[in-house]
Amino acid sequence: EGDRFLQAANACRFWPSGRGIYHNENKTFLVWCNEEDHLRIISMQMGGNLGEVYRRLVTAVNDIEKRLPFSHHDRLGFLTFCPTNLGTTVRASVHIKVPKLAANKTKLEEVASKYNLQVRGTRGEHTEAEGGIYDISNKRRMGLTEFE
């Protein structure tokens, strides 16, 4: 069973067959195979060392792409099953507690809109924040470079 969008696209027909996840011992690096997108490559860790998270991700992506070329379109960028991930495919997020903004959801959405950010609940899309902690990420992935 997937969400209604995956069901409409017939993307969860054989769930969970043909799907899997790899993670390193520390669970700071994961690769989901055939979840929503064909590959979802994740680098994460507690704390604020974003450079280490980024370097681990870039090293892994480059290594994977040497063995398994990614589909790319000149205008659309990298091709994914989920249209919101087209382009760079990069969704960089932090879980952060924002108590003053959380007290005023309208203001939180206003700030997010101003900076092209997406606000999600602690456990992803369509979930609520737990303990005032939100998942804040870039909203745009198409028409930008990874740096932008």
UniProtKB/TrEMBL annotation:
Tell me the Gene Ontology biological-process terms attached to this UniProt entry.
phosphocreatine biosynthetic process
Q: Name one Pfam family in it.
A: ATP-gua_Ptrans
**Leading EC class:** transferase
GO CC, sorted alphabetically, is: extracellular space
Name under which the protein is recorded = arginine kinase
Q: What is its EC number?
A: 2.7.3.3
> Single GO molecular-function term?
arginine kinase activity
| Domain of life, source organism | Eukaryota
Q: List the keywords (alphabetical).
A: ATP-binding, Kinase, Nucleotide-binding, Transferase
- Give the binding site residues for ATP: R40, R91, A92, S93, V94, H95, R120, G121, T122, R123, G124, E125
Domain Phosphagen kinase C-terminal, by residue range, is 1-148
Query: Can you tell me which family this protein belongs to?
Result: Belongs to the ATP:guanido phosphotransferase family.
